[in-house]
Amino acid sequence: MNDKQRNLAIAGGILAVVIIAAIFLWPTLNKQKTEPxxxxxxxxxxxxxxxxxxxxxxxxxxxxxxxxxxxxxxxxRKQLTALLLELRYGKTPSQxxxxxxxxxxxxxxxxxxxxxxxxxxPDSVLNVSSFRPYxxxxxxxxxxxxxxxxxxxxxxRQTLNFYRYLNRFPMDHFVVVNLPTASLTVFDQKGDRLxxxxxxxxxxDKQTPCMATSMNQIVMYPYWNVPKGIGxxxxxxxxxxxxxxxxxxxxxxxxxxxxxxxxxxxxxxxFSPENFxxxxxxxxxxxxxxxxxxxxxxxxxxxxxxxxxxxxxxxxSSDRFRSHGCVRVQKPVDLANLVLEKKxxxxxxxxxxxxxxxPKTLKLPKEVPVFIVYLTTDVDxxxxxxxxxxxxxxxx
Length: 396
Fold this sequence. Notes:
Elements (H helix, E strand, L loop, with lengths): L2 H52 L14 H21 L6 E4 L7 H9 L16 H13 L5 H16 L7 E6 L4 E6 L4 E10 L7 E11 L3 E2 L2 H14 L3 H4 L2 E4 L5 E2 L17 E4 L10 E5 L7 E2 L6 H4 L4 E3 L3 E3 L2 H9 L8 H4 L7 E14 L3 E3 L5 E3 L9
Parallel strand pairs: 1-5, 2-14, 4-12, 11-13
Antiparallel strand pairs: 2-3, 3-4, 4-13, 5-10, 5-14, 6-9, 7-8, 7-9, 10-11, 15-16
């Protein structure tokens, strides 16, 4: 055999070895190339569903319906991203009718976890909140989830969702008005209570709206600019029956240029709710329905927190739902000093009742987030989970 023949034989042998090796190794190489992504996406979603279910999230919304490995994996990872975001940041509470707060959401956190090639989610996914009432409620939820009614389970879930929703907003401290408990609480970041106060909220037929908003100023010795609806439905008929009613309530009549109008110059009998062109205003002072302090909130409903001229209602009656929608606060001085971040009002402020005062606006050092919520299951000031009457019949 000459050199040429020998080289051809060697080359042929090498080629044969390569072909045989390829035949045996191809299935293994192809399997490694195609399988991991498909199964990892579904596995991660299943893990996240179990985690979310354990903290009160309805996971029936996070299912994969696509067919085909590639499409199923892609849909699983998309659902996983949405679920991880809800685990950390909650959903906007369904009762909210207004929201002026700007959320700060780290969407890259969820996207990165959803794209991972590993098959196990880190335990840290569940450690989304160090807020103490949330931790307490999660523990209680684990104990009762299989033993309570559907309505009770829903009330747990709504509160857990709200506490996760708070993660959207970087806050040093914030105000929570929980309507079913008729209470106001100022929390710090960890969930410690800086202030608690009873409140009086809207009647069942004049419900205080739920919202996420902020407080930016306090008005000392405020006027009460009577809302148009109250003025036409309640004040106007009383004035028509009793011409002295305005004087007895320290009220004035204002025209559309905010100029006072002499009540005696008006033909009251000719007015009806449809043609009354004026508005009512109550002068400042201890007789004023807003009391001595008003806490302005951003919202389109003219809803705010305020003191009251009927402070005895907090001690003489258990009815905490008797306003037209605004929120009367039992401890307005404590709240004012806290949000102003210094002691502006002393203990005697509420009793001095100065007369002929012009309203004075005090700007807050920084806006304070305020959440008016409807939670029939919550953690009370003693750290115990408590259940409250569904006064507005909103748990459904």
